[in-house]
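Model: Ready when you are.
Researcher: Fold this.
Model:
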Amino acid sequence: MQQDIISLNEKIAGESVLVRNLIAGIGEVIVGQQAMIERLLIGLFTNGHILIEGVPGLAKTLTVSTLASAISAGFRRIQFTPDLLPADLVGTLIFNQKTGEFTPKKGPVFTNFILADEINRAPAKVQSALLECMQEHQVTIGGTTYPLEDPFMVLATQNPIEQEGTYPLPEAQIDRFMLKVLVSYPSKDEEYAIMERFTGKPPADVQPMLTIDQLLHMRQVVDTIYMDEKMKRYILDIVFATRNPSEYGLESLSGLIEFGVSPRASIYLTKASKAHAFLKGRGYVIPEDVKVIGPDVLRHRIILTYEAEAEEKTTDDIIKQIFEHVKVP
């Protein structure tokens, strides 16, 4: 077993060269935001959708479009607005007067990567149409089902400040997002670099560095990352601590959590931990991988009580306590 892990580690180290080049290429345009870039790549290598939340001007849209430019794949940006219709997203039937028949006109979701900009501005019908795309990787137009491209990934952004003219995403849809990434302000040095880069000569466009075949191969490589039985049990302990905190010595959280995370959290945390190990050039998962990526997998799945809101507790506060108390293997 140890020899297998050593050989796997060497294989991963060789594969990660392409990943480092990809990150460097994105870094030619994007200043800082290393955590957001890493999490976008984790979603990319595990076939998971990502929700990015942050105030305007933090390069959320630019980062996603730059990543798409670095991959030889289809990319569409959809600006979600209150007047958007499901047909604007998935397509509709068009009547052909010459033939007297209805023919399907496919919408912008028929591509590899979708940037759903300000996703919470679209009404419920649009969210329902997108939910089928995200979960089933298919679209129904006029009673006929059409498969979407492979790979297919939704990268959604939302602004946490404005509430007027927005529609909170239903819990069922939020649960379909593998990660919820919170984007913070850049440091002073990073913002200086941003000023220098975007007030002079515009940065060169990123050239495609990753093909669809290479991406699918990397997904297979990530699946082979070794995870010990103890690490799997560690993930289960974290997940179950959100559902039954008192069983893990966290009685103080019992009145703060309305609902714990779903089984998708166990699946996504396992996949994301493997992908994080891959980004770090390792062929095996360590507790640090779970701790680093854990908040992004869990924060949008824990539903707090009114008591927690009254005490101004956030899901990140709860997650921090859980990781501090659950025994590390």
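Researcher: Now this one.
Model:
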Amino acid sequence: MLPPIQDKRFQDLPPQGFQFACHPGVACFNQCCRKLELWLTPYDVLRLRRRLGLSSEEFIERFTEVQAGQNGWPMPRLLMRADDPERICPFLGDQGCTVYEDRPGACRTYPLGRATKGGRDGGPSEEGFFLVREEHCQGFAAGPLWQPQDWIKDQGLETYNAVNDQFLPIITRQAPDPNPQVIASKMRMFFMACYHLEAFRQFVGQTRFSQLFVVPPLRLELAATNDLELLRLGFDWLRFAIFGDATMVLREGAAQKT
């Protein structure tokens, strides 16, 4: 099991589970929505920009700053309100989170931490949980007793975790090439397939993608209209194209055509 980073906020999960509640009646309500360093996963962006009725490019331009994340992969970080000394989340309103149903996975998970190991085959080989206890948080003082799987279900994390587990085999590795120009090209491929889904959909539909790869027609049909299916196709394509994983199958003779 991968241990969490050494941090006094991270604590072992008691066998009986953890007591927690977060609602407007808790004195610290919304205090966790400020001064954040919140990296957004591809599924986070998918949900948020769809909620706001924006294209991927519009959302990233308006609400994020793209920086080098894990292993140098370009990832969007949510921009806090620059005109506020508390650096409040841009989606925090008077009554709380204005995008609550589509809030990022990191917001949903708290106060539970999840550590995984492996994942090269599209999912973690090991999974474990721990608690994250911020000094200001008073949510532990009352509320129901939770086991990790109950919390995951209650917070709607099943799809977030499943998609993020498919993302892990990419960002946990470095682009393997000594040529910086090739690496830059792979970084652009990564960002298109993970965060600019409209551009990736155009790439799949208007290039020789289906002539080069054996992709079931139903999968291509779904990816043409379903962003989640398109994202999963993008993960498979990236793993094949960048790392040589057996996640895609080239058509016979396709190697000679490229």
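Researcher: Key takeaway?
Model: The mean pLDDT is 91.
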